[in-house]
Design goal:
heterodimer; A: 291 residues; alpha/beta; eight-stranded mixed β-sheet; 11 helices; B: 281 residues; binds guanosine-5'-triphosphate; binds magnesium ion
């Protein structure tokens, strides 16, 4: 693990001060660890610069192993970069609060919509799920089944396009005092102009208060490209990282936060809707990324 | 890369970056640049001197790494040929099955699908819609029933109807979930016991946007169901799929098919030459 490696290197150092020279070797180890963890290369570079500045600016505390102190600095810097977290979804007045889920194919949007609805139900809200993915075979069925599992209504309407489905759903929510409205959309490539135009139109008509980018924790270097493009096209308000119950190191968390500046609010931690969504914890994520 | 300019440290650094961004991972990058058969060694030996030679040298090395005896899909000596499809959640298994069925139909085969994902919401409905679009049969089971029993029924019906190829869909599962991996292993055993030599292919569907975790996935799935090939999906995006080199080298699993979109025609045979060229585009 990185901690043990650091202790070995620093154990050999007798200096009281962390110097530019002895920091270099450790930075190389951190670089490898971060790249192994799928943190995007440009993000790794920026991070190493930040950490080097922090480390060189610190006086080694008395009685503390300089290696240990350096590791603490790295963890802290990583956790701080991925935080802070505010996962509250305030009820907007006048309602309803509108939440849009967007992201690449298969990232976990539909399941996450249901998970979020369940979370909000438990907080006393009355969420409405909206089946605005009309192209994936049985996507509407999927959301309806999940909605039935958690006792949340699902809005769908045939023969119209996603932007209009969302408009009608919001009207339906208003008329039936349902809040928030969670809009499930089709998976799409950030380089698919037509599909990006469609989701922008959904956002334009629905005027969401929250726009979440749903990202698979296993995603590699491509995380920065897709996140940057989605962020440029949509006013993202947050990110949800899914499939964290696997063993992917999840460097995408740092990549996405760095490139978009948008907070990661929730973590998908299971296939089941019940218990499958937690508030995102930067400290836990920092440990995981550094291995 | 300057055609006549001399190779220098900066060139190596730029290539290194490109390899990282393509998801090669630090170990593989180290090997390709600093290893015995790497770029730096070739440079020292005088094998490559100009910048334009570097890319050609690297590409030929990469193409050689992907050379594999057989990239075609195995067929059974007599029908039905059985393909088992597995992988982590959301990688594109169900859609890839529809595309594969489409290819096999175009080649004149009679194809049958088995919807052995009995767990996920609307998984059976999803594959059923594809089977209707393809005009082929599908075997299904009760929700939450034993997926192995659906696979079993699939084989029986394939035999009854003189089917050339049976494709078995399974639920997405994390390789870290011991119970689910055991369930998958059981599905494979049921197929093997029912039809000697089956499944002719155990195909792991990997999401092309995955990073280094794809290697762990391949390792565990190989151990549990002896993966015979990979379907690498979503290469129509911007991800390059560089992890396949580590998978190929360490586990000797070949990529056989590539997904390049969400519709039936969007599945192509893996072409190592094209794949390597695309890495640097
Ligand atoms: N293990 C695990 N599986 C998850 C998680 N979130 C979603 N999944 C699974 O991932 C797969 C894809 O989830 P979906 O909700 O269909 O993904 P999607 O983004 O809506 O997919 P598209 O609409 O096709 O783009 C399903 O098998 C889900 O059960 C998670 O946090 N952990
Ligand atoms: N762009 C693109 N999308 C793809 C490709 N293959 C699959 N998809 C999309 O990825 C999403 C997930 O596909 P599925 O076939 O449901 O994936 P799965 O592995 O069966 O998912 P689970 O059964 O939930 O584990 C869908 O939106 C597909 O249309 C591909 O090659 N390119
Ligand atoms: Mg969906
Ligand atoms: Mg599926």
């Amino acid at each position: 693990s990185l901690t043990r490696r650091f202790s070995d290197i620093w154990g050999r150092l007798r200096n009281r001060k962390i110097t530019a020279g002895n920091v270099q070797e450790t930075l190389r180890d951190i670089r490898v660890a971060l790249l192994e963890a799928d943190v995007a290369l440009p993000v790794v570079k920026d991070f190493l610069v930040k950490v080097e500045q922090k480390a060189l600016g610190e006086e080694v505390l008395k009685g503390v192993n300089p290696g240990q102190q350096f590791v603490e600095t790295v963890y802290r810097e990583l956790a701080e970069l991925m935080g802070p977290v505010d996962s509250r979804i305030p009820a907007v007045k006048p309602g309803p609060t509108i939440i849009l889920m967007a992201g690449l194919q298969g990232s976990g949007k539909t399941t996450t919509c249901a998970k979020l609805a369940l979370l909000l139900k438990k907080q006393g809200r009355r969420p409405l799920l909206v089946a605005a993915d009309i192209q994936r075979p049985a996507a509407i069925d999927q959301l309806k089944i999940l909605g039935a599992q958690i006792g949340a209504p699902v809005f769908s309407e045939a023969d119209i396009k996603p932007p209009q489905i969302c408009q009608h759903a919001i009207r339906h929510a208003r008329e039936n005092d349902l809040d928030p409205v969670i809009l499930d959309t089709a998976g799409r490539l950030h380089i698919d102009e037509e599909m990006m135009r469609e989701v922008k139109e959904v956002a334009h008509l629905a005027q969401p208060h929250e726009i979440f980018l749903v990202v698979d924790a296993m995603v590699g270097q491509d995380a920065v490209r897709s996140a940057r493009d989605f962020n440029e096209q949509l006013e993202l308000t947050g990110v949800i990282l899914t499939k964290l119950d696997g063993d992917a190191r999840g460097g995408a968390a740092l990549s996405v936060k760095s490139i978009t500046g948008k907070p990661i609010k929730f973590a998908g931690v299971g296939e089941k809707v019940e218990g499958g969504l937690e508030e995102f914890r930067p400290e836990g994520m920092a440990q995981r990324i550094l291995g | 890369f300057g055609l006549r300019e001399k190779l220098d440290e900066n060139t190596l650094a730029r290539i290194e970056e490109e390899l990282f961004v393509a998801d090669f991972g630090p170990k593989m990058v180290e090997q390709l640049i600093e290893g015995e058969a790497g770029l730096r060694a070739a440079w020292k030996r005088g094998e490559i001197e100009q910048q334009d030679q570097v890319l050609e040298f690297l590409k030929s090395r990469l193409k050689a790494m992907l050379s594999h005896k057989d990239l075609s899909l195995r067929e059974a000596p007599q029908p039905p040929t059985i393909y088992l499809i597995a992988g982590v959640n959301g990688t594109g298994k169900t859609t890839s099955i529809a595309k594969l069925a489409h290819r096999l139909l175009e080649e004149g085969n009679k194809v049958l699908l088995a919807a052995a994902d009995t767990f996920r919401a609307a998984a059976v409905e999803q594959l059923t819609i594809w089977s209707q679009r393809l005009g082929i049969g599908i075997v299904t089971g009760e929700a939450n029933s034993d997926p192995a029993s659906v696979a079993f029924k699939g084989v029986e019906r394939a035999r009854q109807e003189g089917i050339d190829c049976l494709i078995v869909d399974t639920a997405g599962r994390l390789h870290t979930d011991k119970n689910l991996m055991r369930e998958l292993k059981k599905i494979r055993e049921v197929l093997a016991r029912k039809v000697p030599g089956a499944p002719q292919e155990s195909l792991l569907v990997l999401d092309g946007t995955n990073g280094q975790n794809a290697i762990q996935q391949a390792e565990v799935f190989k151990r549990e169901i002896d993966v015979s090939g990979i379907i690498l999906t979503k290469l129509d995006g911007t991800a390059k799929g560089g992890v396949v080199f580590a998978i190929h080298e360490r586990l000797e699993i070949p990529v056989k098919l590539v997904g390049i979109g969400e519709q039936l025609p969007d599945l192509i045979p893996f072409d190592p030459g094209q794949f390597v060229d695309a890495l640097f585009e």
